[in-house]
Structures are given as structure tokens and as C-alpha cells.
Amino acid sequence: MRRDRRVAGEITEARDGGIAVTVVDRTPSAIYRAVVSPDGTLQAPVEAVAAPGELSAYESAAVRARSMAMAFDAPRCGKDYDAIAFPSSASDGWMAYLLPRPARGSVPIGGSYRLEIEGEGVVASRPYTRSCIALAPSPNSVGMMITHLLDPVPTDVHVFWSLWEGKPFFVGVENGAWRIADGRIAPLKGE
User: Fold this and answer.
1) Cα–Cα dist 186/180, whole Å
2) Per the domain annotation, does 110 fall within a domain?
3) Does residue 189 lie in a domain region?
4) How far is CA 45 from CA 32, 50, 143, 172, in A?
5) What is the rounded CA–CA span in Å between residue 11 and residue 54?
6) Do 47 and 70 belong together in one domain?
7) Domain span at residue 43?
8) 99 and 163 together in one domain
9) For 7, 123, 124, 150, which has the most beta carbons within 10 A of its beta carbon?
């Protein structure tokens, strides 16, 4: 599957205590399907769809939201990006994160966006930085650190990149510092 040039993206959906993963081509049609447990373990072998398969209503809407996010016109930090889309809890639309694809040994904080998608397009966007900042943590480092001046506390994108890298993230803001570890944010108090 990794060498299949038809692959254009993946759609995930919580289903029956697991996560259904549908790999789509550019048409878009399903070309592979799998179900993984919440810890990422395959629950059954990956199924190669014999003839490109139809997408469910959820999958079609997710592909559409992801495509709108990828087409969003915003300053980019690099040419390779990914988008993560999911139904919005605040509206009938979708939320999406537009994220730079990490290079080996790099955590690209700059160039990340959160988008609100409704109807035919993006109705709101939020950048997380003003520049193309990327961290290059050593494999032996115990964490990463960044100064963030756009918000009084760390953001969801800081949590994402901490989880991605598998290391704590220390975020300095105007009035203090915070530690992010295992998806949790806590203020540093003179530690």
C-alpha cells in the first residue's frame, strides 16, 4: 500500500470501539480499508478493495472537508502539507487542521492552521504562529521548548506536536510557562 501511487489520503472514523481507516484515491474512491484499535493495532488484515469502492456519506464529507483544507490559501512553511478533518461539535460543518509535513528530525510548529468549514468553503481560520518555526529535538532530549506570544496559554497544536514527537513540550507565554505531556497541559510552578 505504501508504494501504491493511487493513494491520495486517509479518512478515519470511530466505529465499534475501534477506528475505521479508509484509504482513498483521487477520484475519490476507497482503495484500502482497515480497522485499528485505539492504540493503533490492526484488528484485521488491511483489505485491498478489488474495484475502487464507493464512500459512505461520512467518508465523502470528510474527503470534501480535507480537500477544502488542502486548497486553503494561506502562507505555507514548505510544500508538503497534510490535513486532518473531523465533524465540528459547534456546527453542522467540519473542523480541519492544515499541518506542515514533518521532515526527518523536525517538528514544524510554524505554518499550522485550524480551519472551520461550512457549506462550500472555509468560513474561519486560525494561524498558530507568525513565522515558519521548526524545532529539531535531539533523539536524546527529554523535551522541547518554545515561546508562544499569540495566546495566554498553550494551544491545541502544541498538544498535537507533543503527542506526535512523543516528548513533553514546554511552552513559555507572556505570564508564565506550561508543560504539555501525554496530552495534558499544566502550569509550571517553580519546578
Assistant:
1) 6
2) yes
3) yes
4) 10, 15, 35, 44
5) 13
6) no
7) 9-54
8) no
9) 7
**Cα 134 to the chain's mean position, in Å?**
16
Whole-Å CA distances, 118 to 64, 65, 80, 90, 91: 11, 9, 25, 11, 8
Read off the pLDDT of residues 160-175 as tens digits, 9 standing for 90 and up. 999 999 999 999 999 9
**What is the per-residue pLDDT for 191?**
53
Any idea how long the chain is? 191
4 inside domain: no
Total number of domains in the chain: 3
Cell of 160: 498535537
First to last CA, the chain: 47
Location of C-alpha cell 506536536: 161
Task: Look up cell 467540519; give the residue.
Answer: 94
Cell of 171: 511552552
pLDDT at 190: 64
- The residue out of 116, 134, 152 marking a domain boundary is 134
For 108-163, the pLDDT digits (tens) are 999 999 999 998 899 999 999 999 999 998 888 999 999 999 999 999 999 999 99
Q: Measure the CA angle with vertex 188, ends 156 and 190; round to 5°.
A: 165
Q: Look up the pTM and report it.
A: 0.84
